[in-house]
């Protein structure tokens, strides 16, 4: 194997153990929610683990809202951009998104490819993540500029890369998930497995399970494609509300800067209490079982 | 400590940045076009410096010619993915085409994730080229569709294209598709505010876009993205016809109780509409049969005329026609 290329990105990411890319062909299937849950669950798994989450959905960043750090801003230090810590003083849950760089929440980011490419490169080379056990990367839908740029810039650290594909059980989503899988094969990105999201909704009134977006399609696709099935996550209104309303409520209103810390910890605690956290625990176990083998395979290649 | 500025400083008008531009391109409309530091080494430098780049896109006259036969051009947009853009675009197409005298076309510019062929039930069809141009795939006599999905050898194939290639195809969709005379052209877009959106808006600018329908769900994460899309429409000068709230409430098929899957924690689309001064065209409840109809490629409006979602859709479409001044 050729010597590992030395680039600003590879230097910056040398202190990160595992990089997990969350992708899906289709939009709105829950990439960001799965990425956020993955980060929260990893964070809660052991008391010393350090997790980062990078949101490369440049025109529709959702991660800040979901982690309750909406409205925070990024600071520049002599050693690069300081990520926003969702758990404040503990500084074990680092977060970076274009959402932190916007002057107003409602500002649209109207960029064509080259600009997006530049932003992603900056995210990868200029953010001072420090030592991380996991970096979770949330991507926009599709298989285009952001994905190609991401993979291009991450190629020097290819031996630590893996991907999770998120889908819903609907045929239209599955079709795009298959496209996404074709993409990972074309760019030689190892796939940890498929997560089926929104696979059934329990009526709070009568307990009847409705398959709002059909059912079991993800598992079947995984079997057909020879990819590991990581698990199914039913629609969980508690989780939806939690991630949606995770607004950084500023305890010190006059300072204008929300104290994200207390929110972060509180968020983890509340997340652990949702039904989804239980389901996601299984997903995480399967995923962590798969991780060493997947990464070993790439480092041999 | 310094706060990082909105990167990079001095964003040029994105509409004037060529597809193969370097990162800090000042934009072809700029005074500095071809003369700034970023222009060094750019293949377009000579063209920009000469002022020729201020001339319109060469595809424009052809698009204009083709679009003279199209009466109404409506964009379906949303910042967020999976909120029901394609489903709404398809319902809109079907509803327009329910009048046999109305010719309707649906153009799918979601290049990486085309859903329109599946939703319309024509996923296995192919596009044919003739002297008059590419012929759209017809669902029924008066409802045609064009999508990159008709051009892929297999539905498994991923389209791994960067911006310029996507833009090239969109330009071809607009100038080379032989729609014939159309009363309505509905353009379904991918999520976001990027290449595809800019290209469609730029290319259709001269022919005139009648407006955009924005789709959202009641969640704050979706509403934030839609707020950005409204900002985008204002920046590029596209009229916002209104907002449609999808997946608002779920009626249990067993006990008929309505519950909120995607809770409007922050006031839902109604609040966004109020804040931005955009009309809320209506809210469509979540009916599992909508998704099923999309998977099987049948018209939900025709299959389930008794669903509350059907009446919500029809009211929205009627309101749209009123706004446009069509009967």
Instruction: List the uncertain runs of chain A.
Output: 248-260
CATH class of chain A: Alpha Beta
CATH topology of chain A: Rossmann fold
Give the tally of structural domains of chain B.
2
CATH superfamily of the largest domain in chain B: P-loop containing nucleotide triphosphate hydrolases
Instruction: Give the count of structural domains of chain A.
Output: 1
**Helical/strand content category of chain A:** alpha/beta
The percentage of residues in β strands of chain B lies in 15-25%
Q: Which CATH architecture of chain A?
A: 3-Layer(aba) Sandwich
What's the SSE pattern of chain B?
A: EHHEHEHEEEEHEHEHEEEHEHHH
In which range does the helix fraction of chain A lie? 40-55%
Number of strands of chain A: 11
Largest sheet of chain A: 9 strands, mixed
Shape of chain A: globular
Helix content of chain B: 25-40%
Question: Uncertain spans of chain B, ≥5 residues at pLDDT below 50?
Answer: 1-15
| Global geometry of chain B | globular
Which structural category fits the helices and strands of chain B? Answer: alpha/beta
Tell me, rounded to a whole number, the average pLDDT of chain A: 87
Distance between the termini of chain B: 60 Å
Largest sheet of chain B: 8 strands, mixed
Topology:
The complex is a heterodimer of chains A (about 300) and B (about 325).
Chain A: H1 8-13, E1 16-23, H2 31-45, E2 51-55, H3 63-66, E3 75-77, E4 80-82, E5 84-85, E6 93-97, H4 113-126, E7 132-138, H5 145-154, E8 161-167, H6 171-186, E9 191-202, E10 209-210, H7 217-225, E11 229-235, H8 237-244, H9 260-272, H10 275-300
Parallel strand pairs in A: 1-7, 1-8, 2-6, 2-7, 8-9, 9-11
Antiparallel strand pairs in A: 3-4, 5-6, 9-10
Helix pairs in contact in A: 2-10, 4-5
Chain B: E1 2-3, H1 45-50, H2 60-67, E2 70-77, H3 85-97, E3 104-108, H4 116-119, E4 128-130, E5 133-135, E6 137-140, E7 143-147, H5 163-176, E8 182-188, H6 195-204, E9 211-216, H7 220-236, E10 240-245, E11 250-251, E12 258-259, H8 268-276, E13 280-283, H9 288-296, H10 300-303, H11 308-324
Parallel strand pairs in B: 2-8, 2-9, 3-7, 3-8, 9-10, 10-13
Antiparallel strand pairs in B: 4-5, 6-7, 11-12
Helix pairs in contact in B: 2-5, 5-6, 7-8
Protein name (chain B): P-loop containing nucleoside triphosphate hydrolase protein
Keywords (chain B): Hydrolase
Keywords (chain A): Hydrolase
